[in-house]
What we know:
Blueprint: H1 12-40, H2 42-67, H3 72-120, H4 122-142, H5 149-175, H6 180-187, H7 193-231, H8 237-247, H9 253-298, H10 306-347
Amino acid sequence: MQTPTVRPLLPEPARRVAAWCAVLLLVTGVAAVAVWLCVVLKAAVTPALLAVLGTALLGPLYRRLLRMKVRKSLAAGLTVLAVLVVVGGAAYIVVAALVDTGDQIVASVRRAAQDIAEHFGPVGTSLEDLGGNAENLLKRFGGTAASGVISGISVVGHLLATAVLALLLIFFFLRDSDRAAGALRSLVPRATGDTAEAMARRAFEAVEGFMRGTTFIALVDATLIGVGLLVLRVPGAVGLAALVFVTAYIPYLGAFLSGAVAVLVALADRGFAIALWALGVVLAVQVIEGHLLQPMVQSRTVHMHPAAVMLAITAGASVAGILGMLLAVPLTAAATGVLGELRNRYGASDPHTPGRT
């Protein structure tokens, strides 16, 4: 007696779509819970993420010290000390430049906005309001407003605590980096140990490539634009160059904002002709970055479409503001590395792939 054939309720294409929808919902739910936990535990998550970025950037220096037969703890300590000296000195230069020229830059932007308002009406008025908001922001975070002293102290204390914790984590991450693979393997099933280690390495390599490439590009952009503004005798050129360097860690959007401020300052203090020259300098540097620096420096390690970068920045800003914008791209680079590793491992062995047996 033959067993009657049971026909499925849904055809094969519908079952495939349903399966992919279930996977998508599961991944989305896990990602949403992860983001929620990061927001709730941001006091611990933020220093950890900053420490990962710092470790990725400082890894070559630490490994060079190890090759010089320096003990691991001493090498990690010297690396952190180098960070304190370099970052502290750079922060002092940037802050001093912004403090010395911040009022001048804001005043120039306001004058440029007023001139634009006289010619373009409501559009220029919104730019004038933007200048006023920028001035209020500087007063708030610069501690010049008496009413914001307490909140300013609180913000500074929180930033210092975050920086100290991040530096300590960088020390431990560097010193114990050789144990990372073993620790990861102990957290996952034995059968998936190789895959988990490979994904972690790809993610870290992507973040490392992004940090080193972005730092180099930011330094080149800030130097070229700063020299150009100094040649054009634009006021606050050092502070504007510092602004270019800081905002370079926010791809595309940061360059647009810092370049717009530089052109507005040149328009206000040096006139329309110098503003055009300043715009030419900014555009020339962006062309050099987009057609020379980006392909040479980052294309070998980070492969992300500009649309994906913009979406990542927008999502990061909606979740964690400026900090989210800074962390969005390296986290997306890490996710891209993980997906690439999964595709390399499982894509080739997919029995449904056309042309494969």
